[in-house]
Design brief:
150 residues, alpha+beta, eight-stranded antiparallel barrel, 1 helix, DUF2147 domain-containing protein, DUF2147, signal
Length: 150
């Protein structure tokens, strides 16, 4: 009898872990490779985390050419982000789940220092993330596809 109870407990624990993994994969939380629109090369790694139902994304690593500054600053940013290092910079913030998508927040483009409204959508079995930045209405914007690293 003790062994069947152990088996049932083990199955219950494994089921809970599988459910938590499935939920985690249904979330944009994780490490993402950003891809340069022009070159198609990996540009950076962005870690998206969740706290209190809101998602934020910080640049963790940059992939730079040998002739580029390995530690660039956000020289075109304004306010508290002005001249801050790109590595560690929060570029996505206040994103919340909205049905099958995530939105309501902003994304910072460090290349021009501008803030845009943002929407995120998981695609390709949650292995990719469509990141849309726009002004006013989502139809007036640009979408990048990020690839899940972990």
């Amino acid at each position: 009898m003790k062994q069947s109870g152990l088996i049932k407990s083990s199955i219950a624990i494994l089921s809970l872990l599988a459910a938590q993994f499935a939920i985690a994969q249904n979330s944009p939380a994780g490490l993402w490779k950003t891809i340069d629109d022009k070159t198609g090369k990996v540009k950076s790694l962005v870690r998206i985390s969740e706290s209190g139902g809101e998602f934020q994304g910080k640049i963790e690593k940059l992939f730079r050419e040998a002739d580029q500054d390995p530690n660039p600053k956000c020289d075109k940013c304004e306010g508290s982000n002005k001249d801050q290092p790109l590595i560690g910079l929060t570029i996505l913030f206040n994103i919340k789940k909205d049905g099958d998508e995530f939105g309501g927040g902003k994304i910072l483009d460090p290349a021009n220092g501008k803030l845009y409204s943002s929407k995120l959508k998981l695609i390709d079995s949650n292995k990719k993330l469509e990141v849309r930045g726009y002004i006013g209405m989502p139809m007036f914007g640009r979408t990048q596809t990020w690839v899940r690293e972990e």
